[in-house]
Amino acid sequence: MRRAIKKATLVKAVKKLVLKASFELEPAVERLLEKAARSETSAEGRIALAIIRENLKIARAKKLPICQDTGLSVFLVELGREARLDFDLEDAINEGLRAATAEGYLRRSVADPLSRKNTGDNAPAIVHLRLVKGNRIKLRLLLKGAGSENKSMVRMLTPADGREGIKKFVREAVTKAGGQACPPIFIGLGIGGDLELCAILAKRALARPAGLPSKDRELAKLEREILREVNRLGIGPAGLGGKFTCLAVAAEKAPCHIASLPVAVNIQCWAHRGGAIAL
Amino acid sequence: MNFKNAKRIETPLRREVIASLRAGDWVLLSGVIYTARDQAHRRMVETMVAGKALPVSLLGQVIYYCGPTPARPGRVIGSAGPTTSSRMDKYLEPILGLGVLATMGKGERSKEAKALFQRYDALYLVSIGGAGAYLSERIKRAKVAAWPDLGAEAVHELEVEDFPALVAYDGQGGDYFEKIMKRNADRSVRATKER
Hints:
The structure holds two protein chains of two kinds. Chain A is an alpha/beta fold.
């Protein structure tokens, strides 16, 4: 059944979503950080995790952004084809984002790529839209800081590189990222598709509830193996050394050309900020 | 927080303090420090190239790679954690040439940058990336010292108290990141032998 969605409702919901994600982590992310804090063995890593947890308490209590890099806002939108919008979706998302930026005292972190002139309001958001069944609209937000996004990589591997090649590439990306990407990190891995689809798959993988394995058994196995291997690198919390370099690996795949194996590694910092709404 | 054997140090830094610190030491920093990130570095170097004086004297000072969030009413500053230092590697030599004795940020830097800390007998400090709310509580006073048009990227003068950081590169060529990588390598060699 056709159903109308009001612009004001969406704008308000987006604002709330951005504000909440800026000040507090989703429970699944916080649980993974707690677990790491309990079992980290390196002295420096333990201090880093203790500060990280204290930081989360202060941010929540005082409505201070968890990190000064309040990030680029990425929205993964699923629009039911029976939902009716009589407004421009991206405009509405940006309106909510601008309101959150002003109200939440968020940093202005978005600029023209060449002149470097700041847009002044954190807009525009990056919007990935998919049409789905139903009459609702679902938005999944990720706030992406540049420290981790800058360390993300796409590479066109060959079919012969295979599974081992994928694992080697992830280890390489994580090693290069080192302490700069604010570990313990989250890894979104996109396998297959083409140049841009593998990158979008990696982002979608990050958007899954943190720590939830893939439903595909083969992918879930690969996620576990990569997590184990990456945590052997010893980079540790804040890059100060330790067992926890990565908290979770999430992978998604799509068919690709018989001659290709595109792979994207999207790195997210420990402050894995996001949230979801459905209207 | 248990900063084992952290050393309290004050700005402006003195040479003997730098000489006493080694990679891997925790420090608690107090006094005035200056923020500068990408655009402020570009301006500083452009100003120097034009033969003009900088709006602030950086002799003996600490540069903090940071772009804070705006302060809520009643607060000194918003979130103010470190940004990735390696982006400022290109500007490091002229900055150390001004007499800056330490820079603070997060993460590893290039080989070239690391060598400069030894050559200029200066420190590279790392704090905890992402802990902007926690670190903002260690900032007692803040004002824009130069280039307010840069917004978050302006040079801010901050007065900090017991601001935690770890010495990543010391003035003698010591490198904390190298130490932990060596520690890992030793551990995996041991693990292989035990097998």
